[in-house]
Amino acid sequence: TEAQLQQAQKMEAVGRLAGGVAHDFNNLLTVIRGYSELLLARLQPNDSMRKDMEEVKKAADRASGLTRQLLAFSRRQFIAPKLVDLNALVVNMDGMLRRLLGEDIIDLCAELAPNIGAIRADPGQMEQVIMNLAVNARDAMPKGGRLTIETRNVTVGKGPRKDAVGVEAGVYVQLTVRDTGHGMDAETRSHLFEPFFTTKEKGKGTGLGLSTVYGIVRQSNGTIVVESVPGQGTVFKIYFPLVSEDRPGASGPGETSDPAHG
Ligand code: ADP
Fold first, then answer.
1. What's the ipTM?
2. What is the DSSP letter of 121?
C-alpha cells in the first residue's frame, strides 16, 4: 500500500543518514579509543590521572558499541552470510536466553518445527535479532509471562494473506517471537523500527534494538511483521526466504559457506 511504501522509503532515508553519521563517528571514535589506550599504557599504575583516562576509554567504547548497532541498521557492517539452520541457532542460544530473561518469572518456550531447511544469513546477526527481540519481550513483561520462539515453513501465495501483509509470494522460514507482555499502542507500532525511537525511561532504552533488527532482516532479504494488542502481548514474525531444503551440516556435501560473499 501507499503507506507501507512511504514507511519503507522513510526507513531507507533514515538508514542512509544514520549510516553516514555512524561511519564518520566510528572513525573518530577509533582515534579516541586508540589514543586513550596509548595514554593508559604510558601512565604509571598509581598515576592519579588513570581513573579519568579509564572513564574516557569506557565512554568511547560504549559510543563505539552504539555506532556499530547503527551501522548494522544501515547495512554498512561487514557480514558473512552462510547457510543457517535457525533451529540449531535457537537451541544454541537457550542457556543465554534463560539467563537474560530471568527464568523465575519468564517462561521460555521453543516450538521448532523439524526440518525447516536453511536460510542465507550471518549467524551472528541472527543471534543479535533474537537477542534484541528477547530483551524487548523481557522489558514488556516486568511481572513475568511467557516468551515463545517458533520456527516453521510458510508458503505465501499470491492472494491476500492477513498475517503476512507485505510479504511477497514464496516459500519462507518463519521465525516468530511472541510475548505476553504489555503490548503497544498504534502510535508506538508506527515508529518502532526507527532508530532512537524508545518509550523506555532515560538510560534504559537506546531505541536502537529494533532498528538493528530491521536492518539485519532486510540485509537477509527477509521481511518483519509485527502484531500487538495492548495489554495482551506482541508477536514479531520474520519471513526469511528458504534457500535450501537441507539442513547445513546434515549428511552430504551441502554448501555451508559462500566464498563469493565470505
Ligand atoms: P529500546 O528497547 O531501546 O526502547 P527498540 O528499538 O528495541 O529500542 O524498541 C523501541 C520501542 O518499541 C520500545 O521502547 C517499546 O516501546 C517498543 N517495543 C519493542 N518491543 C516491544 C515488545 N515486545 N512489547 C512492547 N513494546 C515493545
1. 0.98
2. E
Question: How many Cα atoms within 13 Å fall on the side-chain side of residue 91?
Answer: 8
Q: Rounded CA gap, 185 and 64, in Å?
A: 32
Does residue 211 line the site of ligand 1, with CB under 6 A? Answer: yes
DSSP strand pairing (170-179 vs 106-112): unpaired
User: With contact defined as beta carbons under 8 Å apart, do 47 and 224 qualify?
Assistant: no
256 CA distance to ligand 1 middle (Å):
34
pTM above 0.90, yes or no: no
Q: Which residue has the cell 555451508?
A: 256
Mutate to test the pocket of ligand 1, among 192, 214, 234 (most ligand atoms within 8 A of CB): 192
List the residue whose alpha carbon is closest to atom 12 of ligand 1.
192
State the pLDDT confidence band at 262, using cuts at 50, 70 and 90: very low
